[in-house]
């Protein structure tokens, strides 16, 4: 498990399964029901796929090939960062240099930071666009 790589005690199997299943279930409900009736939002399916991969796989680099199919339909920067980021898991670890923390940070934390940053940017970008496009005139900022 990832917890061992960061010197964190492993949770009980039941606790981990409840957490992972609950999170995947919430993401699935959000991806399916928080949309319009004629809407298909592939970015939500990509997030669900990435979360499923992270929470259920044994973190072997070849599992990330699954994300390439999602990148075709949803070229989100976080997904694009996570796919080649898994190559850092192949790097040899010389004694006293890299620990498992750095490759896992590149593979998992960096895409998460990119995703959160993009969501914040999109939230403020949409709000800014709505303010500028009021009425019949369009302002450029």
Polypeptide structure, described:
The protein is mostly helical and 141 residues long. It has one domain (2-132). Helices cover 64% and strands 0% of the residues. It has 6 helices and no strands. It has helices spanning 2-5, 13-33, 42-56, 65-73, 77-85, 101-132. Helix 2 runs antiparallel to helix 3 (42-56) and helix 3 runs antiparallel to helix 4 (65-73).
Which features would summarize this protein structure in a list?
mainly alpha; disordered C terminus; single chain; 0% strand; globular; 141 residues
Q: Based on CA inertia axes, which overall geometry fits?
A: globular
The structure class reads mainly alpha
The total domain count is: 1
List how many beta strands DSSP finds. Answer: 0
Count of separate DSSP helical elements: 6
Helix content: 55-70%
Evaluate the radius of gyration: 19 Å
Order of H and E elements: HHHHHH
Keywords: Membrane, Transmembrane, Transmembrane helix
Transmembrane segments: 13-33, 45-64
Blueprint of the fold:
Blueprint: H1 2-5, H2 13-33, H3 42-56, H4 65-73, H5 77-85, H6 101-132
Helix pairs in contact: 2-3, 3-4, 4-5, 5-6
Transmembrane segments: 13-33, 45-64
Keywords: Membrane, Transmembrane, Transmembrane helix
Task: Produce a short descriptive summary.
Keywords: Membrane, Transmembrane, Transmembrane helix. By secondary structure, this protein is mainly α.
């Amino acid at each position: 498990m990832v917890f061992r790589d960061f010197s964190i005690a492993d949770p009980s199997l039941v606790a981990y399964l409840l957490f992972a299943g609950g999170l995947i279930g919430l993401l699935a409900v959000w991806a399916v029901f928080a949309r319009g009736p004629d809407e298909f939002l592939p970015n939500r399916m990509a997030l669900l796929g990435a979360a499923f991969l992270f929470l259920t796989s044994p973190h072997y680099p070849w599992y990330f090939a699954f994300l390439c199919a999602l990148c075709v339909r949803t070229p989100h920067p976080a997904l694009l960062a996570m796919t080649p980021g898994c190559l850092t898991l192949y790097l040899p670890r010389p004694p006293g240099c890299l620990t498992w923390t750095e490759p896992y940070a590149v593979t998992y934390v960096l895409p998460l930071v990119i995703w959160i940053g993009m969501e914040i940017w999109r939230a403020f970008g949409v709000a800014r666009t709505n303010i500028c496009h009021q009425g019949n005139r369009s302002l450029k900022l």
